[in-house]
């Protein structure tokens, strides 16, 4: 997968990385700022998703589409499709541009909406990447975990970089008997949960 990423994808990833850096300093309101994972986290997600069991793939928190482009590489290998949710109109428009520019529209379906009330309509789930506001993490977790197939994976971003904001959530997840979980120190820290 990593040795055959199309040039259009790498070019779009580089553009999104530059836009992400610019957003940090240009005064964009916090909610609407681009947020994206570093490349090593993208590769990690790609490997996990490529080895997930059969089932649907989700992402909550598309931003400009960077992580979805990584997941699209695995989706192409597996012959599946990622559904990704973004609530910000600015970010959703940018993600649409990203998927078109990278030629990934056949592997990624963008839904511009609040994911929380729609998660119950999905399943069975094999893989989910959750990169959303901390306030909705528990609601998303509680909606996603029952839909995961045995061996299905849920990955939550920022488990180290924002651990103080996620403390209650990070204390709760390891006590949930439906999943095994651990925090992987890659990028901003990834909480990886596997359905039993």
UniProtKB/TrEMBL annotation:
Coiled coil: none annotated. Keywords: Methyltransferase, S-adenosyl-L-methionine, Transferase. InterPro entries: SAM-dependent_MTases_sf, SAM_O-MeTrfase. PROSITE patterns: SAM_OMT_I. It comes from the Bacteria. It is an enzyme of class 2 (transferase). GO terms for biological process: methylation. Its EC number is 2.1.1.-. One of its GO terms (molecular function) is O-methyltransferase activity. PANTHER family: PUTATIVE (AFU_ORTHOLOGUE AFUA_6G01830)-RELATED. This is O-methyltransferase. It comes from Fundidesulfovibrio magnetotacticus. The lineage of its organism: Bacteria, Pseudomonadati, Thermodesulfobacteriota, Desulfovibrionia, Desulfovibrionales.
């Amino acid at each position: 997968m990593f040795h055959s990423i199309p040039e259009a994808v790498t070019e779009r990833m580089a553009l999104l990385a530059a836009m992400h850096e610019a957003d940090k300093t240009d005064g964009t309101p916090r909610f609407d700022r681009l947020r994206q994972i570093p490349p090593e986290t993208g590769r990690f997600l790609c490997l996990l998703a490529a080895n997930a069991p059969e089932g649907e793939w989700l992402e909550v928190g598309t931003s400009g589409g960077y992580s979805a482009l990584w997941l699209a590489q695995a989706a192409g290998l597996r012959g599946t499709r990622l559904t990704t949710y973004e609530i910000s109109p600015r970010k959703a428009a940018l993600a649409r541009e990203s998927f078109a520019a990278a030629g990934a529209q056949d592997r990624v379906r963008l839904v511009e909406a609040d994911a929380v009330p729609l998660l119950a309509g999905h399943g069975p789930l094999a893989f989910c990447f959750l990169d959303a506001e901390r306030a909705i993490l528990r609601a998303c977790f509680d909606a996603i975990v029952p839909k995961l197939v045995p061996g299905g994976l849920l990955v939550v971003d920022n488990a180290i970089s924002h651990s103080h904001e996620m403390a209650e959530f990070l204390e709760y997840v390891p006590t949930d008997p439906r999943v095994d979980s651990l925090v992987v120190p890659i990028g901003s820290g990834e909480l990886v949960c596997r359905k039993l």
